[in-house]
Amino acid sequence: MNDESDGRQRVDKWLWYARIFRSRGLATQAVNAGHVRVNGERIKPGHRIRPGDVLEVLKDRLPFTLEVLALPERRGPAALARDCYREAAEAARRRQRIADGLRADRMQMPRTAGRPDKHTRRKLRHRNRGADTN
Prior knowledge:
Layout: E1 9-10, H1 11-17, H2 24-32, E2 36-38, E3 41-42, E4 48-49, E5 54-59, E6 62-68, H3 78-82, E7 85-87, H4 89-108, H5 118-133
Antiparallel strand pairs: 1-4, 2-3, 2-5, 5-6, 6-7
Helix pairs in contact: 1-2
């Protein structure tokens, strides 16, 4: 059954074609892990979507809410991939707030000269716990 014949497409393939994920394998892993919902329901990688469906994607701890506008026939340029979906404005603002919060948390972490080893990580964790209790 071709994707074009019935106006539907596998969700993992669409996520890859629309450049939400770098590879189809990563898209499949995200769907299997429950990080992708279609119209509010958990799905499998073979679930077929059509224009009008709403996808809720959790990628790198950031939520995306995408409405499917088109089913691309291949993985093309990013500019054409963006035409395949519309993101809810509120979801974009919420994602930006979360990203800003994560960035602020990262800036509060103490700096080390290079990558910390096991013992340095333990000291940092212990120091952070002490700051939380005060």
